[in-house]
MFS transporter (Streptomyces agglomeratus), 428 residues
Amino acid sequence: MTGTEQRTAAPRPPLRSRLLPEPGPGRLLVLCTAVASLGNGLYVTGGAVYFVRVVGLSPAQVGIGLSVAGMVALVLGVPVGYLADRFGPRGTTAVLALCKAAMLISAVFVQSFTTYLLMAAALGTAEQTGHVARGALVSGVMGREGRVKLSAYMRSVFNGGFALASLGAGIVIAIDSRPVYLSLFWGNAAAMVIVSGLYMRLPRVPRKLPQSRAKKAASAVRDVPYILVAQVSGLARIGPTALALGVPLWLVTHTEAPRALAAWLMLINTLMVVFLQVYVARDADTVPGASRLQRWTFLVLAAASAVAGFTQGMPGWAAGLVLAAATVLFTLGEIWGEAARWGLRYELAPEHAQGQYGGVFATGDALAVIAGPLLVTTVPDRLGTLGWLLMAALFLGSLALSGPAVRWAVRTRVTESEESNLQDAETA
């Protein structure tokens, strides 16, 4: 067969196959993600406006509610992950989706800051712990060979659906009517009920209980090397926060670039995530591959921060072009960082405790969730270009920690063959 015939016999796969997994459980999980993303896009974009415009809360009160929700969810991630391991991730994930639907319905009746705070904490907990249980579900359904790639498919689809739903929520905000705002809550609640039913159509994932005393003694909250990897990996999530909050604020207050460019920069980000996330994640299904991607993540985030900082004082057109380049770099850091997180989160955790370890890995988001928004908005605003360079230094420091943290975690893992030997010794 000639070279020309070989190329003809192996055509490039169609676009659909590059954006969706093969038919089966993986595609059903992607469908769950698509439905959830539409509901989330409606609520996240319009919900905050509703609580300010209709309920009468201040923007600061809405922000406090979101922060409290994030902190509560971080604390409860490990217990929920344990429940997913103990009772099965499929049912746990479906129940948490129904809990989220119930909290969205309760949001309709919020009339004060106190009730809002309670609702936001419960809703945020159901949302974030649902991610932990779903991670264990993805691992159980897809196995080691497919879980990282499917995570990439799910994130790609989520970003696309979220962007479309945000446009719809923008129409609701323009109408600015209480009944129309409430449709956002009802729509998201209905989406989560549908998602819960779809989860139950997935294959049942057997509970993976520890069989040896070594496994029984293992606990994610005492696995210091794994926790360190989680904390270092979580620092990469400051990058997307910088792009979503820090760059638009910087563009408006410290550069001559057109203000409308902020929306176009986010469009660049969304399109890159949708079309590149699956491709980028192809090398992240092993610890060495994920570790390498994480090092590239911190390097490119440092470069993006430095590039963004030097736009102060540039002519408007030049500042716009340079900020577009910074956006590309921030987005590369985002998609590389997420792929690296999946690989490290799954591969460094024991197979019988993916839920529990996933909850611990989620604690690595603490700094990005709690301090990230303040860091990316205040430091560049107060210090100008120096502030962005300090952020670049933070990412370079994370780069220095990344390799040693992963190597320490690898050295302390118990391999499958060692676990089998321990079991054989106990039964002998």
